[in-house]
Structures are given as structure tokens and as C-alpha cells.
């Protein structure tokens, strides 16, 4: 899952992103690499979110996400996305044999599917009947 979905879920309760994160916590698990986790920690710690959610609540949310996650050591460098910063999501998905990538990022969505991995918006993910 891309960082933007985690942040949207945190900020907008009952949004499709929130529903997606909640569903994966209940039915599946997230994949994280060191790079993707570092990005989420950096973004979730930004002071601009202080007026919406306390830092303590953000870190509790992060703990919840991490508890429902599997750490993946990426094994292959991928250079495929228009935005090079998004290649780490592709590397994680391929290395971790992800069932799907969930994002709102148009640069990633334009690659759907990537090496057989569907790239879905939270809306599209919500239409799936089950999480693997």
C-alpha cells in the first residue's frame, strides 16, 4: 500500500482509504520494506498533521499498521515509474509477491498491472470480495 492511502485513512474516517486499511487489518496484512516504512514514518510525523491528529495518535496508528505487516527485504531494483520515488513500491510488491498494490498515485496506476500485480485505487479494492 502506498503512503498516500495510509495518510488518507488516518485523516478521513470512513473514507475508501479508511475502509481499505481497516479491511486489510482484519483480513490480511501489509507488506513493508525499509524504504517504504521510512517514508511512512517521515510523512506521518510531519507537523502539518498536528492540527488534525495528535502525534501520539499518529504513532498509535502506525503501531497498528506495523503490527499487521510483514517485513520484506527487497531483492530487485526496479526503474519503471515516471516518478522514481515510487519505484520502491514496485520493488516491494515484486519482492514480496504482493496480491495487489493499492494507491491513489496516477504514476503507479498508469502501470496497472505491473508484472502481474494489479494496481488498484482504494475504490477498486473495495469491490474485491476477499483479501488474500
Structure notes:
The chain has one domain: Rossmann fold (3-Layer(aba) Sandwich), CATH 3.40.50. With 132 residues, the chain is mainly α. The protein has a two-stranded parallel ribbon with strand order 1-2. A two-stranded parallel sheet has the order 3-4. It contains seven helices and four strands. The mean pLDDT is 94. The protein is globular. Helix 6 (106-109) links the parallel strand 3 and strand 4 (119-120). The longest helix is centred in the middle third of the chain and has 13 residues, at 55-67. The two termini are 14 Å apart.
Number of beta-strand segments: 4
| β-sheet strand percentage | 5-15%
Helicity range: 40-55%
Count of the domains:
1
Keywords:
132 residues; mainly alpha; Rossmann fold; two-stranded parallel ribbon; 48% helix; globular
Outline:
The protein has 132 residues and is mainly α. The protein has 7 helices and 4 strands. Helix 1 (3-11) packs across helix 2.
How are the SSEs placed, and which strands pair?
Blueprint: H1 3-11, H2 16-27, E1 30-32, H3 34-44, H4 55-67, E2 69-71, H5 87-95, E3 101-102, H6 106-109, E4 119-120, H7 122-126
Parallel strand pairs: 1-2, 3-4
Helix pairs in contact: 1-2
Amino acid at each position: 500500500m502506498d503512503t498516500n492511502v495510509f495518510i488518507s485513512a488516518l485523516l478521513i474516517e470512513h473514507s475508501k482509504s479508511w475502509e481499505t486499511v481497516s479491511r486489510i487489518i482484519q483480513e490480511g496484512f501489509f507488506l513493508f520494506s525499509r524504504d517504504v516504512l521510512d517514508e511512512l514514518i517521515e510523512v506521518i510525523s510531519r507537523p502539518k498533521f498536528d492540527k488534525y491528529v495528535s502525534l501520539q495518535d499518529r504513532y498509535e496508528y502506525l503501531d497498528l499498521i506495523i503490527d499487521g505487516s510483514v517485513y520484506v527485504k527487497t531483492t530487485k531494483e526496479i526503474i519503471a515509474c515516471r516518478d522514481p520515488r515510487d519505484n520502491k513500491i514496485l520493488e516491494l510488491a515484486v519482492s514480496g509477491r504482493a496480491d495487489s498494490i493499492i494507491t491513489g498515485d496516477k504514476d503507479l496506476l498508469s502501470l496497472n498491472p505491473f508484472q502481474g500485480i494489479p494496481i488498484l485505487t482504494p475504490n477498486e479494492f473495495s469491490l474485491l470480495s476477499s483479501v488474500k
